[in-house]
Task: structure prediction
Amino acid sequence: RGRVAPEGKARAVKLLRKAILAAGLLTLAFLLWKLDPAEIWRRSSAVGWGFLLILAQEAVPHLFNTLGWVFAMSREHARLFGFWELYRHRIQGDGVNYLTPSGTIAGEYTRALLLDNAVAADIRMGGVAAANCTQSIAQISFAMLGTALLLPGSIPALSPYEDSLRTLAFSVLAGLGAAGALELFLRKGPPPPAAQGHWLKGLPSQVRGYFRAHPGRWLASTFFFGLGYAWSALEVYWACRFLGTPVDARTALLIEVLSNSADMLFFMVPAKVGTQEAGKTAIFHWLGLGARTGLAFGIVRHLRELLWAALGMALYSLELRKNPGANLKAT
Result:
């Protein structure tokens, strides 16, 4: 009694997804109506051929993220895969994550699924899970460090809360550092016990074992994922110049820090519908760069993300046709 049937849960989840998507679309429509669609179009189209540079530069963060994935595996396991194979699967997984309402779960499963089936499923999924952990650490660290160092004095509306925000940011960083130090300390003890049965049950202990056995590699993995996030500040820098509102390197980096914070808050929204534009509109308004410019930049970035996601989904479909037997069965 009191339990919800599986069908009821599935129906509730579908309704929630539709509600989130509808809220995002309404937010976007409201912003366009409020800020003048014709003016937003004029500003967005001012990017012109510069959009090709914005589109092409995204290949570099994918390189850094692939290196992050390589170092999220032991040296022996990383040698089982080719770098460009992993690079392709990063793009595919990101496309699935971006376009499906799965809270980034489906894309991680996709990455492991498409790897060489000759390699045991626990090795494939273990590397993906560890990479997901180090990428999350990198994103949180990037957002918190940027907030602590760049936010003070930048947004007058937030000045009463700057001390609290800085304290929160350093507290989160200290917590991550303490957790890392604890793993290094526990490294001297016995390895985590392996779970019996299906490889999925042993995934948590496998990831913990990787963190304890390869501290240098997971630090390198976190570093490369962090570079991927930091690189996107260059996209902000160039896009703002094309939009006719040039910013300095510090401001570009702060915009990317705040954008990452918004992405973490609204990660459940499929394709960032509405949240991408609303977030950029608020950030640019707070920084005195103009809400219209922020909305135009949000649309430009959204288009870039959609095109790369579409490429990822196309590559994913082709891969499944070539490898219809791809699976993550227990081995």
